[in-house]
Design brief:
- The chain has 314 residues and is of the alpha/beta class.
- The chain folds into two domains: 2-62; 65-313, Purple Acid Phosphatase, chain A, domain 2.
- It has helices spanning 2-33, 45-64, 102-114, 137-145, 168-176, 213-217, 236-240, 260-270, and strands spanning 67-75, 85-91, 119-123, 153-156, 180-181, 185-190, 193-197, 225-229, 246-249, 277-280, 285-288, 305-313.
- α1 packs antiparallel against α2 (45-64) and α3 (102-114) packs parallel to α4 (137-145).
Length: 314
């Protein structure tokens, strides 16, 4: 499976590079007939394309396993919070399964703990479907338990967090790892600070209906600081109207492999959100991460696997 996924990427880049060289040779042909260039063409186009493709694949495979730390700072004024600052670490899309296991998760957890967070949020796609594909599930659970966050570790589920047409085993496994799973639930983190975990709206292979945002925020004081954890970034302006202050999401992988970066950006812009990075509204800010793992081919080109550190000041 992994080998076939890599071949998809290889064919994509070979096609792109050959297309580029064809365009270059066509341009040279036009210039030749215009009398601007002698009739001498590049006979090394095919070899150059293959070498460039091989180099990109090797780079992408190595780059996918590296974990970068990305930092954001944001301030909120007018909130009655008995706290000067809050450090949140956000990860998503680890896709634990046949390709990602204990070793990669250990690197992610080490990077999380290095940041010394108050709270850790996991924005879905923790697993890549069938839990039985994980070679050392107990080892993965042991590593996840090592996350050190005094205020807790919280997760929502993603579209890939479906095992045997159910989410039950995945929720149970995350609970064993001391991770609180929130599915359309509100959790009081501390006085006047709440975290809302959204239910995944399009889980693979099963139907899902989730509560309206208005229902989830009803009863929360307007002076509260509300964090919303959702797998998919969408409709930021509409969410802001319900009093949410910080929206955390993943899912996009930032496109994972160029030119997917360009396509993904366009898709989520149309969805009223962003595909990656920081979004600033009037009363709400949002962070979308590229994820701490990968899906399909174990390759990242033009993107990075990351752990996001968010320092919130009040």
């Amino acid at each position: 499976m992994q080998f076939s996924n890599v071949w998809i990427t290889i064919f994509l880049y070979i096609f792109m590079l050959f297309a580029l060289f064809v365009l270059v040779d066509l341009a040279r042909l036009v210039l030749h007939f215009a009398g601007k260039l002698p009739a001498k063409f590049n006979v090394y186009s095919v070899g150059s394309a293959l070498v460039l493709c091989f180099g990109l694949i090797v780079y992408g495979a190595s780059n996918a396993r590296l974990i970068e730390t990305v930092n954001y700072n944001m301030n909120y004024v007018g909130k009655s919070i008995n706290l000067e600052n809050l450090r949140i670490v956000l990860i998503s899309d680890t896709h634990i399964g046949s390709s990602i296991g204990k070793n990669h998760i250990k690197r992610v957890v080490d990077e999380i703990n290095r940041a010394e967070p108050d709270i850790v949020c996991i924005a879905g796609d923790v697993f890549d479907g069938n839990i039985d594909q994980v070679s050392d599930l107990q080892g993965v659970i042991t590593e996840l338990r090592k996350i050190n966050a005094p205020l807790g570790v919280f997760a929502c589920l993603g579209n890939h967090d479906v095992d045997r047409r159910s989410t039950d085993r995945i929720v149970q496994t995350l609970n064993e790892a001391n991770i609180t799973v929130l599915q359309d639930e509100v959790y009081e983190l501390m006085d006047t600070i709440y975290i809302i975990g959204r239910k995944e709206i399009y889980p693979i292979g099963i139907e899902s209906v989730r509560k309206p945002t208005a229902e989830l925020v009803s009863g929360l004081d307007s002076d509260s600081f509300i964090i919303m954890l959702d797998h998919r970034p969408s409709q930021f302006l509409q969410t802001e109207k319900f009093g949410v202050n910080l929206f955390l999401a993943g899912h996009t992988h930032k496109g994972q492999i160029f030119p997917g970066t360009i396509i993904t950006s366009a898709i989520f812009k149309r969805a009223g959100a962003i595909a990656y990075g920081h979004w600033q509204g009037n009363t709400m800010q949002a962070i979308v991460t590229s994820g701490a793992g990968f899906w399909g081919p174990s390759i990242r080109i033009g993107t990075q696997s990351e752990v996001v550190v968010i320092d919130v000041g009040f």
